[in-house]
């Protein structure tokens, strides 16, 4: 399971970085979303992987670390807010510049695809 | 009174938050009421910071446990000398920047005052928190508010600069979370004092992980501080936003510098065992390179606010070079230089607005135009601000740089620090002299009917420059305070004991 999770986080991060480096706002926003998914998973896994144990200290002998779950909840809320903001900003930039390039410059090569 | 003084460390965080919420509720109210509420809330931060400065100045490290949960399980706020020092600088800059915003910036868009208070909420929280994850949360709060403030008033260039600023900071936040997650995975805690204890005992097989996390954190803080090569977002963002916001942002780069100082003196300092002095090889070359890049940018600038933005980058370089000396004298020099450069650049940004206003369509571009109305006052203030920022005697920039040069005497970096700091100071003088003479002397008399700036527009800048003068008059007291702060930072055990109590 560890290898699978690591692979997922790695692929998500790689996709996120690749997309975030693109020249148009939509791929950039998508890349940032992928990155935030990757980091949320990463934070979650940092409490170690466990199956079928409660995240609350109770009478049960084993429990999984509850703190990363609290952290990841906060991180998800923040990344949702930030993504919403950057989408609105990208739309505003699209309206201001008339194209979706991050620099607001419109050249044929960039939009040919 | 004792009840209030126990809760003193949380008041600078709660006050702007409550003020922000109240202002949100007041958004339909008359403008004068909103302005009064915002002004009162911002002004109240100054006595609060003074009170904290007084308590911290006696050497006590106030630890405020939220919900009375003990560290490391609960969240703590720690008000030590460094935090109080940063709060004071923030409160002063915020007050004067707000005064200028009342001259008309605040009605250019919606919710200026709400965002302003939330920005202060994030800033104060970041300085006070004793917990790495809450540092992240407060970073996000201050960033989200800063996005709104940056875009306040709108406009093409502002949107473009804002888009870059937002995207690059979102990537920075992701990196921050990766670093925090790695540290949590290794140490099982996020309380900074507890992390300092745990990281010092890192087992060899985790060493690479901790170092990677530490350097990732450094990358994030370097991005906030606009350290080379992560400084490229700053000039456009600062040059295109409104003057009060740019002035408030003068403290934002210092958040990065503060975080570097806090984290690397506490968690990766000389006493941190296997991970000690993590940044020793990195910080000084990067800081000096930043100083050079910032100064060259200032020389090459084509408008006044762009030039000031590059001077902000140069000041970050100077500041981090002082911290990178890693001696008590070096950190003390940096801590004296920090409020000076914050107040100085903030004053300069506030001054750039009336100058641009008095030049009509030319704005703050370096083109010779008609003689501006009110040139005497503006020119005089420009002169004082330029002297302060270039580091000429007798103002505090000179004292700060002198302390830095003296602190470098015993360091292996002596030749580099002296050569680069002195040369860049010379270049800063040249750049500022050129822009000053261009703006104020090389004028021709084309009759463009412009009105002189109202006093409300330049008085805040004058007020900040008076504070810079005050830093010279009380230089002894301030230098003593920063020396004691440096000593406190270099003895992280007192911080750890204060936060964790007598726990192992």
Automatic annotation (TrEMBL), chain A:
Family, similarity comment: Belongs to the CPA3 antiporters (TC 2.A.63) subunit C family.
Membrane topology value: Multi-pass membrane protein
Transmembrane segments: 6-21, 28-50, 70-91
Domain of life: Bacteria
InterPro entries: CPA3_antiporter_subunitC (IPR050601), NUOK/Mnh_C1-like (IPR039428)
Protein name: Multicomponent K+:H+ antiporter subunit C
Keywords of the record: Cell membrane, Membrane, Transmembrane, Transmembrane helix
Compartments it resides in: Cell membrane
A Pfam family the protein falls into: Oxidored_q2
Any single GO CC term annotated in Swiss-Prot or TrEMBL for this entry: plasma membrane
Gene3D superfamilies associated with the record: 1.10.287.3510
The keyword Cell membrane is assigned to this record: yes
Lineage: Bacteria, Pseudomonadati, Pseudomonadota, Betaproteobacteria, Nitrosomonadales
UniProt KW Transmembrane keyword: yes
UniProtKB/TrEMBL annotation, chain B:
Recorded topology in the membrane: Multi-pass membrane protein
Gene Ontology biological process terms in this record: ATP synthesis coupled electron transport
Residue ranges of every copy of the NADH:quinone oxidoreductase/Mrp antiporter transmembrane domain listed in the record: 130-424
Domain of life of the organism encoding this protein: Bacteria
Location of the protein in the cell: Cell membrane; Membrane
GO cellular component: plasma membrane
Annotated InterPro entries: CPA3_Na-H_Antiporter_D (IPR050586), NADH_UbQ_OxRdtase (IPR003918), ND/Mrp_TM (IPR001750)
Residue stretches in coiled coil: none
A Pfam family reported for this protein in Swiss-Prot or TrEMBL: Proton_antipo_M
EC primary class: oxidoreductase
UniProt keywords, alphabetically: Cell membrane, Membrane, Oxidoreductase, Transmembrane, Transmembrane helix
Molecular function in Gene Ontology: NADH dehydrogenase (ubiquinone) activity; oxidoreductase activity
EC number(s) stated in the UniProt entry for this protein: 1.6.99.5
Transmembrane regions listed in the UniProt entry: 6-26, 38-56, 82-102, 114-130, 136-153, 165-187, 207-234, 246-270, 282-301, 308-325, 337-356, 377-395, 415-435, 456-475
Record-linked PANTHER family: NA(+)_H(+) ANTIPORTER SUBUNIT D1 (PTHR42703:SF1), NADH DEHYDROGENASE (PTHR42703)
Family per similarity comment: Belongs to the CPA3 antiporters (TC 2.A.63) subunit D family.
UniProt protein name: NADH dehydrogenase (Quinone)
Organism this protein belongs to: Thiobacillus denitrificans (strain ATCC 25259 / T1)
């Amino acid at each position: 399971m560890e290898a699978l999770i690591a692979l997922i986080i790695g692929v998500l991060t790689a996709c996120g970085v690749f997309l975030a480096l693109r020249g148009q706002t939509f791929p950039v926003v998508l890349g940032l979303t992928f990155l935030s998914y990757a980091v949320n998973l990463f934070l979650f896994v940092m409490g170690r992987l466990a199956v079928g144990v409660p995240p609350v200290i109770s009478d049960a002998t084993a429990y999984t670390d509850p703190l990363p779950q609290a952290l990841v909840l906060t991180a998800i809320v923040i990344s949702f807010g930030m993504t919403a903001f950057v989408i609105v900003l990208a739309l505003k930039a699209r309206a201001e510049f008339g194209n979706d390039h991050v620099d607001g410059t419109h050249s044929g090569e960039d939009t040919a695809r | 009174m004792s009840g209030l003084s126990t809760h003193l460390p949380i008041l600078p965080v709660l006050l702007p938050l409550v003020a922000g919420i109240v202002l949100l509720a007041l958004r339909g109210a008359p403008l004068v009421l909103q302005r009064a509420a915002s002004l009162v809330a911002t002004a109240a931060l100054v006595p609060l910071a003074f009170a904290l400065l007084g308590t911290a100045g006696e050497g006590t490290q106030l630890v405020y446990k939220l919900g009375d949960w003990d560290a490391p399980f609960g969240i703590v706020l720690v008000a030590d000398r460094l935090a109080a020092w940063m709060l004071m600088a923030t409160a002063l800059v915020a007050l004067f920047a707000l005064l200028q915003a009342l001259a008309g910036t605040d009605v250019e868009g919606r919710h200026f005052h709400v965002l302003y208070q939330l920005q202060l909420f994030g800033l104060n929280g970041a300085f006070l928190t004793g917990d790495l994850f809450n540092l992240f949360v407060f970073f996000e709060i201050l960033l989200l508010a800063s996005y709104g403030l940056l875009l306040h008033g709108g406009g093409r260039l502002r949107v473009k600069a804002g888009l870059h600023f937002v995207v690059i900071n979102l990537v920075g936040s992701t990196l921050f979370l990766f670093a925090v997650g790695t540290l949590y995975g290794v140490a099982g805690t996020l309380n900074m004092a507890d992390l300092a204890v745990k990281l010092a005992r890192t087992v060899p097989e985790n060493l690479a992980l901790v170092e990677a996390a530490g350097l990732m954190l450094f990358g994030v803080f370097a991005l906030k501080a606009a350290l080379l090569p992560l400084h490229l977002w700053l000039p456009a963002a600062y040059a295109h936003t409104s003057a009060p916001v740019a002035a408030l942002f003068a403290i934002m780069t210092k958040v990065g510098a503060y975080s570097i100082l806090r984290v690397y003196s506490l968690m990766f300092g000389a006493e941190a065992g296997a991970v000690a002095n993590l940044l020793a090889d990195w910080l000084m070359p990067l800081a000096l390179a930043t100083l050079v890049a910032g100064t060259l940018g200032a020389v090459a600038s084509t408008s006044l606010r762009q030039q000031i933005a590059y001077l902000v980058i140069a000041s970050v370089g100077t500041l981090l070079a002082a911290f990178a000396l890693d001696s008590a004298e070096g950190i003390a020099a940096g801590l004296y230089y920090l409020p000076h450069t914050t107040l100085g650049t903030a004053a300069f940004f506030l001054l750039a607005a009336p100058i641009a206003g008095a030049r009509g369509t030319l704005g703050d571009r370096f083109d010779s135009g008609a003689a501006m109305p009110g040139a005497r006052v503006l020119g005089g203030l420009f002169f004082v601000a330029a002297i302060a920022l270039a580091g000429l005697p007798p103002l505090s920039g000179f004292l700060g740089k002198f302390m830095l040069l003296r602190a470098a005497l015993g360091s292996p970096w002596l030749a580099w620090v002296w050569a680069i700091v002195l040369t860049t100071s010379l270049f800063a003088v040249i750049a500022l002299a050129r822009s000053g003479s261009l703006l104020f002397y090389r004028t021709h008399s084309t009759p463009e009917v412009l009105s002189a700036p109202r006093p409300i527009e330049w008085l805040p800048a004058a007020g900040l420059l008076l504070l810079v003068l005050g830093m010279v008059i009380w230089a002894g007291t301030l230098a003593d305070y920063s020396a004691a702060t440096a000593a406190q930072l270099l003895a992280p055990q007192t911080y750890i004991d204060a936060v964790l109590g007598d726990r192992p």
